[in-house]
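Entry 14. Structure prediction run on the chain below.
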Amino acid sequence: MEKIEKITIRLVMLLIGFSLLFPVRALAAEKDEITEKKQIIFLLDASKSMQGDGQWIEAADSACMIASALPKEYEVALLVYNTEIVYEEDFGNINQKTRHALETVELQGYTTPAVALETAADMFDSAAADKRVVFISDGEISLRDQSKTETAIRQFENMVDQIAEKGIKIDMFAIPNDKTENEVSYGTKVTSGEQYTVGENQTIEEITAKYLFQTLQIEKIELGEAVSGEGNMTVDLQDTYMQNAKILLVSGENIEDFHVTGQCESLNMLQGNKFAVAELENPLERQITMDYSLENRGNVHIYLIKEYFLKADMEKSYTSEEGTFTLKVNVVNHQDKPVLDSETLKNSISVLIDGQESSYEVENGTALVPYQTDKTTNVNVEVTTQTSGNVIHYIETTDMVELTVPVVEEEPDYTVLWIVIISLCAVALLLSVLYERKKQKKNDGEAGSIIIEPSEPPVVPKYDFSGQLAVYLLKGEREDDIPPCSIKLFGKSRKSISFDWVKDRCGIDYKLSDADKIRFTGGKDHTLCFKTPVMQPS
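Output returned:
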């Protein structure tokens, strides 16, 4: 029996543990969840025509740089193609290993992008809010003979039309080739995509940065631009509420060395020939340092990308004395730290009530927004932020808050009741006065009436006796005497006591005639006086 009880207790504890674990997991999933997932697939042309001076390595750099710099709402995949898919990385798998693998890809053969485009179309998640294909190619579509080439062009155009119907955009980083025509640009025209051309006063590195910050509109802070061969700088993150901070270095020359130092939970690095990205997960301090060196002196651009996951919730309270509501808005980061404690973030966060910005005070990390209304109503509370320089998720939180004005019961009007009570009191007083007057007249009219004043009862001493009385009764010659006995007289509040009473108190069971006629009284100076009956002569 005891064994069964132990097993039952363990099962109960295990169930309690599971019940506590599930809410934590649900909360963690809520924090990591992206409200609008966006997907990008890079299609890299690995045909023989891409064997130009460093073109392939620059293409690899471009795709890997964007994949590593994008915030977490983006998922990036990669396909390398010529007449078939020769290398593939699925969503979320692009890393330093990918960058090294791209250097070993052999550029050869002809090219038909329809195969890559069809493969990419099948990889997209239909629920993604934004779907893009990015070609990095010289735009050539070429097979062994002209008829097959024309067929490949028509296949590509048909595939582009299908892509357009699915809402997928085609962007392109075009690498010019005087010997070939850019047939792939058809895709950008049909899907209203963006096309950047290398060599039009811009390098592929500059194109990549423009695509990241202009086309995709990723928020960033420019840390600096210089022409140098090496550098060292301290970066101020301004706070430690972000989930990650990324330092992006884009160079016009090959990077020899790149280091970032700072306290954080984890540090991830991805480096190519002319770019480097350092990602600090959950920074623990504001100040970080960065240093780099190049093979040759060249142009250097350095950017800071900070990503926050914020969550807002609203409460309300009512103050009856002032008749106002206080809306309490809590904004926390992914670690449930109140971000309004940070002056940097506080100044960028706004609270809107029914679309109008409201002023608020911060108390213990909570925004207190006063709102006055004299009737129950619903208000739309929205939390927004100025995202300049920061990538912020979940901040535009809207909630409909019901403000219920408590019903105040009116105090009853006792005016009529008070009038009735006062009137009754007045009537009673008047009747009492009339009765007293009538009684007084009656008393005055009675002749010989005697008024007897009440007299106070005489004051009787509390105690009349004190001391102790000893009794020894002598009977006669033929009878035995009564042994001595005593009785305390102190405290006896009597005017007098009889000998018969004394005899009874002493327990003397002997009849004496006229014993009740012998009386004892208290005298002055604690004396005992007694009276005996007058003996009549016989």
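Residues 77 and 91 are 4 Å apart (CA to CA).
Filed with the rest of this week's runs.
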